[in-house]
Amino acid sequence: MAELSQNTSPDLSGLPVALGDIHAAADTIRGAVVETPCSYSRTLSNICGCDIWLKFENLQFTSSFKERGALNRLTALTPEERARGVIAMSAGNHAQGVAYHAKRLGIPATIVMPVGTPMVKVENTKHHGAEVVVTGATLEEVATYARSHGEARGMIFVHPYDDPLVIAGQGTVGLEMLKAVPELDTLVVPIGGGGLISGIGIAAKSIKPTVRILGVEAWLYPSMYNAIHDGNLPARGDTLAEGIAVKSPGKITTEIVRRLVDDIALVNEAELERAVATLISIEKTVVEGAGAAGLAALMSDTSRFAGQKVGLVLSGGNIDTRLIASVLTRELAREGRLTQLSLDIPDRPGQLAAVASLLAEAGANIIEVSHQRTFSDLPAKATLLQLVIETRDSAHLDEVMAKLGASGLSARCT
Asked: Is 78 exposed, middle or buried (0-12, 13-18, 19+ CB in 10 A)?
C-alpha cells in the first residue's frame, strides 16, 4: 500500500453534514448511547511500533456503533411518522440499533436481513422486538425488497448509511476519539457503505485538519475502493467481515470519502482472522470481522504507521461463538501451535504407543487420534495414523518433526 497522503486543507464546504450536525447528534443520543472507552493498548503498540488507541464500540448495548446513527434518525421522526413505523435493511448491526431504539421510543419496526446473516444477529434483532424478514442474497437485493415492502405499508425507510442524520450520528465516534486523545495522527476506520467513516471524517477533519483518515475494506468487497479509484475489482464471496460486505457504497458517503479520506486499505481473510484472534488474546475483547478490519490493516503493514499515534475503531462485536472457535483454532494452526500429522505405520500392536512415546518425549500434546485402514493406498499390513498435536510454536513443531524423522517414521503435516 502507498504511504498515506496528508490533506492539511480538506474541503468541507457544501457537504450534507457539518460539524454542528454532529454536535447536535451528540446531544440527541447522550444518555441513551454509551460513550465508549478510547483506551491505549500498550501491548499492541509494542507489537506494531506505533501508539495505538482502541475505540471500543463493541461495548455498546447492541455491540455496535450503529445505534448512534439509528437513534439520531429515529429521534427526528414526526409523531405521524412514528405511528406509521419504520423499516430497515441490514446485515445485522444496523438492524439491532434500529430495533432496540425503536422499541425504546415506541416505534413499530420491521427489519429485512439477507440470507446468511449470522444467527446471533438475527436472534438479537428479534429479541429487541422487531419483526424480522430474512430474504435476498445481497444487501442490494434486501434493500430493494425493504423499500417496496415499506412503501406498500407506508413505513419510513431508515437507511443504514446513506442518510445525513445517520452519518451525523456515526460522526459522534470521531468527536469522542479526539476529545479523549487530541494528539491522534491517524484514524483507521472500517468501510462498508461508508456512513461511519463519513461521519468520523467530517468530525475529525473539522476539529483537526491535519489528522489522516484511512479506510479499510475486505479484499472480497472493495466497493468504496473501486468507487474512489475508478477500479473494477470484483465484489463477491463469503467474508468474515460480513458487516462491511457491501457491493455498492452510498452516493452521499462516496462523495464525502472522496473528499476527506486519505486512502483505503484492503485486507484479506487471513489478516481479518488474525486480527480477531489477536484482540481476543491480547485485549480480551470480542470483535466481529468488520470490527477487526482496522487492526488487520495495521498489522499487515506496520511500517506505514511507524511512530504515529493511531486510533482504531472496533466497530462491532456481534460474531457467532462457533465462528470465534473456528477463527481461534485456525490461528493456532497458522502459528504452528496446532497441527495435523499423517504417518504411515505398520499395523502391529504397540506402534501407536511408540509414536505417542516419541511425541511425549518431544513435549508435544496429542489432541486427536485416528486410524485409517480402509480408505488409503497403503498395503494391507499398514495403516494411516492421523494425529492432531499441540506444540508451543513453529520452532517446537520443527523439533517434533525432526525427532519423528530421526526415529525412522515418515510424518507429514496435512
From this structure: exposed
268 three-class SS: coil
Three-state DSSP at 236 gives coil
Q: What does the block give as the cell for 209?
A: 485538519
One DSSP character per residue, 27-93 reads: HHHBTTB----EEE-HHHHHHHTSEEEEEEGGGSTTSBTHHHHHHHHHHT--HHHHHH-EEEE-SSH
pTM of the entire predicted model: 0.89
- How many residues belong to the chain? 414
89: its cell numbers = 435493511
The DSSP-derived string for 193-204 is SSHHHHHHHHHH
Taking only the tens place, the pLDDT of each residue in 179-237 is 999 999 999 999 999 999 999 999 999 999 999 999 999 999 999 999 999 999 999 88
Coil, strand or helix at 414 = coil
Q: What is the pLDDT of residues 332-388, one digit of tens each?
A: 999 889 999 998 888 888 988 999 999 999 999 999 998 877 777 777 778 888 999
Residue in 168, 140, 156 with CA at minimum distance from that of residue 21: 168
HSE (side-chain half, CA atoms, 13 Å) at 182: 3
Q: Among all chains, which residue has been given the C-alpha cell 496429542?
A: 366
For residue 379, give the C-alpha cell: 498395503
The secondary element (H helix, E strand) that includes residue 299 is helix 293-300
**Backbone φ, ψ for residue 141 (5° rounding):** -65, -40
The DSSP H or E segment spanning 367 is: strand 365-372
- Residue 104 amino acid letter: R
